Structures are given as C-alpha cells and as structure tokens.
Amino acid sequence: MSKFKKLTDFLKSLKCRLILLCILIGIVPSVLLRAGMLGSYENRAVSIRTSEILSQAKILANQIVSNDYLNNAESESAINVQLEQLSTIYDGRVMIIDEEFHIIKDTYNLDTGKTIISEEVIKSIQGEEISKYDSQNRYIEMTIPLVHVDPETENKRTIGVIMVSVSTDSINLNLEYLARNTLVMELIAIVAIIFAGTFIAIHLVAPFHAMAKSIEEIQTGYGDDALKINAYTETRQICEKFNKMLGRMKVLDDSRQEFVSNVSHELKTPLTSMKVLADSINSMEDAPVELYQEFMSDIGNEVDRETKIINDLLSLVKMDKSAGDLNITNVNINELLEQILKRLKPIAEKQNIELVLESFRPVSADVDEVKITLAFTNLIENAVKYNRPDGWVHVSLNADHQYFYLKVEDCGIGIPEESLEHIYERFYRVDKSHSREIGGTGLGLAITRSAVLMHRGAIKVFSTVGEGTIFNVRIPLNYIS
C-alpha cells in the first residue's frame, strides 16, 4: 500500500509533470519531424520519377506519331529499342494502344494484340494526360495521348495512347533505409530527452524541496525563524507570504497566551477579594451585624463584577463564531439608536452629560439586531463613562445608497496615540485605575469590532488626549454572505 501511495504521489508531483512535459516537448516534434521527412522524401522521389518518365514518354510519343508507328510497328526497330530501354531503365512496362483500344506493342510481350479498356485509357483517347501513384501496390502509371496534327488543316486528332507503368520498389527501398536511420536517431534523441528532462526537473523542483524541508524545520523548532528560498521569483514570493503568515500566527499565539493570562487574572481578582472577605468574617467572633452587612455587600459587588466579566467573555465567544450564526433581519437603525440612548440616559444624567442623537435620514439595514445593538451600546456607553462632568456625547446617523454611517463623538479624556492600535485587544485598558472604578472589563471594544466586522463593516477611531474621541462606523445596508 505504501509503494502504491509513493507511486501516486510521484505521478502527482511537479517533478513527474516536468519530466513528462520535457518528454512531450522533445518527442512529439521529433516523431512529427520523422513522419514529415519520410512523407516529404516519398512525395519528392515519386514526383521526380514521374517527371523523368513523363518527359521520356512525350519524346517517344512524338516519334511514334511522326513515324506512323501504329501502322508499322514491326518495321520501326529504332522505336522498339527505345521502348525496351525505357522499360528496362525504369523497371517498368510500356504499352502502345491505338484509338480502337488494341494493344499494338507490349514490352512484356504478354498482351500484344489484345484489347484494353480502362478509365485512364478512355480519358487519354479523349485527349487527357493522366498520371497517378499507387502507394499500396508501389507503381506509377501514366497515359499520354498520341496526337496527330494534320499539316494542311492543323486539326488535332488522338490516334492512340502510350501507357507507362513503372515500379517504385527502388524508392521504397530508399524510404525504408531512411526510416531505419531516422528511427535510430529518434530513439537516441528520446533517451537523451528523458535524461535531460529528468535532470532539468530535479534541478527545477530542488528549491521547493528545500522550502518543504525548511518549513518542517521551522515547525519542529530547529530551523530559522524565517523561510529564505530565493532561487526563483515564485519561491521568493511564497517565502514572503509564508513569513507574513508565520508572523501573524506568532502574533495570534502571543495574543492567545496573553488573553488566557488576562482572563485568569481578571477572574482570579474577584475570587481573591471574596476569599479575603469571607476569611475575615469567619475569623471574627461576635462581629457586629453592620460589619457582616458591609462585607456581604462587598462580596456581592465582586460577584457582580465576576458575572459581568463572564457575560462579556460569552459575548466575545459568540462574536468569534462564523458569520453564518448571524440572525439577519431588516432593522430600523433610527429606532434602534433611540432605544439605546433611552437606556443609557440615566447613566449620562448621573454625570450631567448631554446625550444627543442626530439622524440625517431614515435608515433601514440588514443586520443582526442583538449583535449590532451590543456594539453600538458599548461605543456610546464608553463615550459616557470616559467623559468629563458636564460633558457631551454626540451620536449621528447618516447613509448613502450602499452604507449607513454611525459617528459617536465625545469631549472626554481621550486616548493616547500610542494606545490607539491596542484598544481593540481583549482586556486592554488605557487607564486601568479609571476602568476598574467604572467597572470596565476591557472587552467592550473587542466585542464592538467583532460585531462590525461580522457585518462586513469597518470601524475607525480618532482621539486627542484631553479633548475627546470620535468613533466612525460604516456598515453595508444590504448584508451579503
């Protein structure tokens, strides 16, 4: 089974295909060239032989007509000698036929005096000159009309036909000799092409084998931190893409480890506080009721904090699932924002913050109402919580033919420039002390960004420390899965 798998892998490999390509490119032209050469030689040899015989036959035809050979065949010994010579030289047969289809002369002395009726003879009696090559029986046959011209009237009349049949055995012998020689040369070329193709294929795929080995070494931890195979432009581009992917994977791995560490820390802190409070109560004898109530209140606050962290983590996990989990419906975004601001208004009033919604036009979009509500709520709630007393939060909604745009602007504490690229990371806090005071978990913006991206949208932030922050969100009106 392993041998079969190795054979299958080899047949599917680039090396095998390169070898086959080299063989195909080398062998097919040589086979076609050989066939073309043999065919060209045969056609050329037959053409030359036909031209030679035709010229000799025409000379004889003129002599036969001028010497009235048809009526004096026995007495014209000179013409008979020429006919015999033509037959001998070209290894053929010559027949002289009169206009009544009687064979006057046959150099083979087989059919003299007999009658011959054939399509070629009939056409030649009618004045047509015919020449044909029978490749299967290996002979050339031609019929030339014997034309008599009346010296007084200059009228032309066909008085007979000279038929010449010539064997092409000599041409075929030369053709077979040439075929054998070219076949030997072709086999030598094929062997050379196979070796050359194999050599070229091995050297061409060598960088890819080196790349695979390097990737394996990187996976096992014994190789370099980056892939560097610059033999070809393609290998260099693959290495660049791989190194980018590897860097991204390392970032994700570091982020995952940091996330686990942060989760552990965030969940451990409330538990530690509750343990300390519980131990303190248990260690006190005859503690006053007021102290019990205070400690239990603190434990309740820590439980609430733990619950909020867990709820945010569950929300984030849901956001991390595929977009197929979205429950897309057509939602009135104007009404959605009005409901969000209505729920957040008591929080804003505690800090005396003015909360304003400005809608430039009615907007309806295909969104997951639960997830988009959570995203918008996080943005607006952050703008309220991280604001200054007597401040303001301005929420505006607009749209065009393709997207709707949400802008959340505040005059709060702002975000330092070096922190802007980290604000979407899980558990990241710009001001840790202030975040803990207001009960932040560091997951809100991560949840918001995930929800926006799931809707094929985009989010951007602009902020100045001490002046405020602006979040711009763009989401398609029509969701395309």
From TrEMBL:
Documented EC number(s): 2.7.13.3
Superkingdom of origin: Bacteria
Histidine kinase domain location: 262-479
Reactions mediated catalytically: ATP + protein L-histidine = ADP + protein N-phospho-L-histidine
Biological processes annotated in GO: cellular response to phosphate starvation
SMART domains for this protein: HATPase_c, HisKA
InterPro entries: BphY/WalK/GraS-like (IPR050351), HATPase_C_sf (IPR036890), HATPase_dom (IPR003594), His_kinase_dom (IPR005467), HisK_dim/P_dom (IPR003661), HisK_dim/P_sf (IPR036097), Sig_transdc_His_kin-like_C (IPR004358)
Cellular component terms per the entry's GO annotation: plasma membrane
Keywords, in A-Z order: Kinase, Membrane, Phosphoprotein, Transferase, Transmembrane, Transmembrane helix, Two-component regulatory system
Residue intervals passing through the bilayer: 183-206
Keyword presence, Ligase: no
Record GO terms (molecular function): phosphoprotein phosphatase activity; phosphorelay sensor kinase activity
Broad enzyme group: transferase
Pfam families, A to Z: HATPase_c, HisKA
Record's keyword annotation contains Disulfide bond: no
PROSITE patterns from the UniProt entry: HIS_KIN (PS50109)
Subcellular location: Membrane
Name the UniProt record assigns to this protein: histidine kinase
